[in-house]
Amino acid sequence: MRIGYCTNLINTQADGTGSQFIEKGKEKGFDYVELPLAQMVALNDADYNFIKEKLSASGLECEACNNFFPPSIRLTGNDVDFGKIEDYLAKALGRAAELGVKVIVFGSPMSKNIPEGFPKDTAWSQLVELLRFIDPLAKEKGITIAIEPICKGESNFINTAAEGLKLAKDADRDTIRLLIDYYHLALENENPEIILEAAPYLKHIHFADPKGRAYPQEVKNAYVTFVNLLKHIGYKSLISIEALSKNFDHDAKHSVEVMRQLTK
Questions:
Q1: Residue 251: which residues within 8 A CB-CB, separation 6 or more?
Q2: What are the backbone dihedrals phi and psi of residue 228, each rounded to the nearest 5 degrees, phi first?
Q3: Cα separation of 158 and 142, whole Å?
Q4: What average pLDDT does this structure show over 176-199?
Q5: Is 2-263 in CATH node 3.20.20.150?
Q6: Where are the beta strands (DSSP E) in 122-216?
Q7: Domain-by-domain residue ranges, the chain?
Q8: What is the reported pTM?
Q9: Rounded CA gap, 117 and 104, in Å?
Q10: Which residue of 13, 32, 105, 128 has the fewest CB atoms within a 10 Å radius of its CB?
């Protein structure tokens, strides 16, 4: 398994990319970096190219991106503008491909949350239609879309891995797969054995200590149970730490050691 880190939750810059942490990732032992796509798309060409050059010089690749859609783009409800979505996808998938991204994480709670009073089954159908529309565009770029279930504290739609798995199955397209985030799984008190059922669809993992959404600093029994299930299904793809930190240098170094011990 390859160990990476997300920059969105440790960002301190106005652009929201967290790109100031790209250069530190290699020295801390990470295999790759996961940048937030909506923030990368919002950059002007000069700033975007500057980050691309920084990434190239870092020795790390951006193998995945999270934050697929910005809150300004509605994906459910009566205000969905498919023309706006199509224009955004052209730029987003184009930039992701230029960065070498292989997996885009589709969490985007502010975009996909169901508006008050809007029928859930209609919103579900809207996401299925969207994912089927994205499929050939992503396939052309060699990119997989990984649905990210997000806990009820942050989203009102697609909260569990079981729901994310059902959405992937309903979309029924080759590039539409599933991400399981250990943090959200734990907050939803979901049985980690959902990994066994999700095995054919599981493409990406996010990880954080549920206590404080922190960088893991020690091996815990619950971590071992989770990772052993991944080993059992033969999972050999990406695991990104998506966590908060006030001291990245310290937290990242110890987290990489923990994740290497868990996944060896």
A1: 214, 215, 217, 243, 245
A2: -65, -30
A3: 25
A4: 98
A5: yes
A6: 144-147, 176-181, 202-207
A7: 2-263
A8: 0.97
A9: 30
A10: 13
Compute CA distances 49 → 43, 65, 101, 201, 229, whole Å.
9, 17, 15, 33, 40
4, 239 Cβ separation under 8 angstroms: yes
Report angle CA 102, 108, 113 to the nearest 5 degrees. 145
**Number of Cβ within a 10 Å radius of residue 247:** 10
pLDDT at 241: 98
Which structure tokens are listed for 161? 């891995």
- Residue 205 DSSP class: E
Around Cβ 257, how many Cβ atoms within 10 Å? 16
Please tell me the distance from the alpha carbon of residue 209 to that of residue 216, in angstroms, as a whole number.
5
The position carrying tokens 């790209």 is 22
Supply the Cα-derived Rg of the chain in whole angstroms.
Answer: 17
Mean pLDDT of the chain: 97
| Encoded tokens for 56 | 């190239």
254: Cα within 13 Å, side-chain hemisphere? 14
| CA distance linking residue 127 with residue 125, whole number of Å | 5
- Take residue 152 and report the two structure tokens written for it: 């009820």
Q: What are the DSSP calls for 49-92, one per residue?
A: HHHHHHHHHHT-EEEEEE--S-TTS--SSTT--HHHHHHHHHHH
